[in-house]
Amino acid sequence: MPSLKPEKNVNRDGYLDGQLLIAMPSMGDPRFARAVIYMCAHSADGAMGIIINQRAPNIDFTELLEQLNIVPQAERIRLPSAVDDMSVYLGGPVETGRGFVLHSADYYKADSTLPIDESVCLTATIDILRDIAKGSGPDKALLALGYAGWAPGQLETEIHANGWLHCPADMELIFDPHVDRKYTKALTKIGIDPVRLVNDSGHA
Asked: More exposed terminus of the chain, fewer Cβ within 10 Å: N or C?
């Protein structure tokens, strides 16, 4: 996994950290079909991102809190209402047993929270789940299991082969509870009609 040091989180020419990757219809890997990925790190060392539009099937956030012994079942009814609205996402095919929380920058834990840009951070420790359960977590959050990773130069090769588009990220899109519309919204941000894109993808 590429280094996620805060000093690398400033977007530089040619690097896509803090932006969205959008899978082209011709994407050959079914794990990334119609994927929208928030890029957490991108450098000469490789790239790492979180898929933000693939819900994990049959995994409930409150049940996950119970399984991790964060919240006893008897106290489930006391959880903040926002917890009931949280979904668990499939963040990517790497380290699928590990949780990563993308969240708004109003929450920060020294030594565990990594700012990606001025509005979005990444925290991968269980402390943030405890704080969310107590109602002292970030205003907006997305829990993903696993991440998408690329070796040095791999993502650039895939982009040049027309596997991905990219566009600026925004909070509304990242944390939109209507997951099914994120792909279309991301394409619309760069002025692309999804229907036309699908039609054109089959032509040379």
From this structure: C
